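hi!! sorry for the late reply, been swamped w classes. u asked for the two structures so here they r. pasted raw, havent cleaned anything up. first the sequence of the first protein and right below it the tokens
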Amino acid sequence: METNVQEQKYDHLPLGVSGLGGWLILVQIGLYLTMILLTVQLFQHSLPAFRSDTWDVLTSLTSQYYHPLWGPVLIFEAIYNVLFLFFCIFILINFYRKKSTLPRLMIIFYSVSLIIGVIDYLLVIQIPLASELEDGSSLRDIVKSVITCAIWIPYFMKSERVHNTFIR
């Protein structure tokens, strides 16, 4: 009986670290930077590729730069950029509301980012012109994504701060 009263008395006190500080500050910065980079990618690369002059050069059978994968790759990248931008916004809303689904959303975010990066790279290197222009930056991005997953997925699974902030 005495133990029950003691436990109830301290139930309202946080266990260990909690809140949006600590390493979660880096996650927040990363999400904002991702939103900025996706917006830049969308407006500087994805959307301009759909202008008729660019689209025709890459997707017209009579063009010397034609390849059947150009159309699907350009559409895939544009859709990914738009959806991932909205997903970042959704994650940030859940982040600041301290929703219990946030750790799962972050794991999905990092995993899907890696998977999409690999798929995009594999599609792009099938196009001779794009393969020739590849300077290794796509592979570096994939390696960075693997490292990011290796760091942040376990963090969101095991961190005391994440548990106390979002799950508890």
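now the second protein. again sequence first, tokens right under
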Amino acid sequence: MDNLTYILLGILVLLLIVGGPFLKGWANRKASAAGENAGRKFAANQLVKVLGEFGTTVVIHAPEAVAREIVAEAAAKKPKDFPPRADGGYGIRFTEADDAIVRLVPGSAGVRVQVETFREYMGFPQTAPFWKDLRGRIAAAATARGVTVEEGPRLDYLRGPLLDVKNARWSLDA
């Protein structure tokens, strides 16, 4: 019985030596696939949050001229991050002045401030925190003037064609 145990142990060691590299490769592929799947799920969840952030609008309950002054005041406190545009809108800079474009849209309830388009970097939109910051600055500037602001309607976006290997520009879903 002792000999049989040694023979079985020897066969097991031999199987581990010969089959080890195959087993290691299989385990690495499985772990890599599981990591990629988890990464895709995480990125998809984060994208939903970021698109919700971009889709949040601000309505300034004031005439257009006053609303423009309020937004200009809010953006002027960080001119590098929120450069004014010749068309009356504002850029949001991550690396370029037009990484996101903010427009003021007059309406019956006031002036809605919204993101019209934004660009991805590293395969993901990067300017959502800047947009949140600008919305807060607009609300603070409006409150200081005694003007009310509220969250406006939510907007949706569509991803456009690729600008380079993995980055695209998103635009309003009309």
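hope this helps!! also noticed smth abt the second:
The mean pLDDT is 92.
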